[in-house]
Amino acid sequence: MSAQEKQFFPALTGYRAIAAWMIFIFHFMPFRNPHYPDFAKRVVSTFHIGVEMFFVLSGFLITYRYFNDRPINFKKYMVNRVARIYPMYFLLTILFFAVVYFQNNFWTSENTIEAILSFTMTKALFSKYYFAGIAQGWTLTLEEMFYITAPLYFILIRKSKWFLLLLPVFLFLSGNFLKELTNVSENAWGFLQYDFYLNIFEFFAGIALAYFTLKKKISFSGNWVTWFGLSVILLFICGKEYISFESKYRQLVEVIFLSFLGIAPLLWGLIYEKTILQKILGSRIFVLLGKSSYVFYLIHKGFIPIFMTDYITHNKLIIFILLNIISILIFTYLEEPLNHFIRKKFSSKKLNH
Asked: Which of 318, 323, 317, 336 is nearest to 297 (CA)?
């Protein structure tokens, strides 16, 4: 079955909107407002897991669509990935640096470095430039690295399913080793100083889910898996601050717990179980919101909400609504047409020559 023939899962698209909204709330919740209860602040402080929710979903979808393609048409595969994530990121990054230039009326060598690392989606490799350009775009460095290496993972996993376990452990240990190796004073840019190699387990939670789904080795009776996964996520959100592991690998334990016991079961449930949650997230409005969630993610923090705050309103709810409307319009009239244009321009027929 080709990637184009794979089944579409509406509820997983709606799920993307929820993940993006959680990140918005995480960034804009007024934590220091004394009128908010401390428990609410602590709960919202964990909403950064919206990023983890995206990574697990990416691992699942890429594996589900391409794992059985033998061999993968790598050029076509990368064209599809570029068409999906790069055009809007490229245009918004241009707009960001244009705003920087016109606000400051000058351009420095630091701006040049920031622009190069932003446009090449490599900025998250360096702690000094981690949040350069579109700050939340650091996640695209990880997505880019996963897209490039995923076909190699598939080749190894086809040889032995043990690579589902061995590969993330190897990549984690290798990343940790490189971090320690480059943690020297001369390393001004901070190469690999953020522990983003932890996120490989999130991608592999999605890979494992897709692998066993494609092999039809997962089967449950009833509709309990959805609620189990959701319960684990809620447990993590509400209880994170009370969990303390006296180990440098505390984050690793948290990532594995959340990804494999929470997010992955929730995804499985949203695909196969007929629940009210599946119905809501698979509705037309949530599918549209999910499709436009990538644009929402790129614009929810930065010069656009700042402009809204300065010239329109300070009300975060109104800003949230406006950002969703803008995201839908950009998706409908710019992102989706560009995606189709690039895919058509580099069609399979041309790629085979």
From this structure: 323
- 163 within 8 A of 156, measured Cβ to Cβ: yes
Which single residue is written with the structure tokens 């020297």? 184
Q: What does the DSSP 8-state code read for residue 105?
A: S
Q: What is the DSSP letter of 5?
A: G
CB 290 within 8 A of CB 231: no
Among candidates 339, 327, 332, 328, which has minimal Cα distance to 82? 339
Task: Kindly tell me if the per-residue pLDDT of 2 is higher than 80.
Answer: no
- Other CB atoms closer than 10 Å to residue 281's CB: what's the count? 23
CB-based burial, 203-229: b 16+ in 10 Å, e otherwise: bbbbbbbbbbbeeeeeeeeeeebbbbb
62 burial level (CB within 10 Å; 0-12, 13-18, 19+)? buried
The answer to whether the pTM exceeds 0.90 is yes
What share of the chain has pLDDT > 90, as a percent? 71
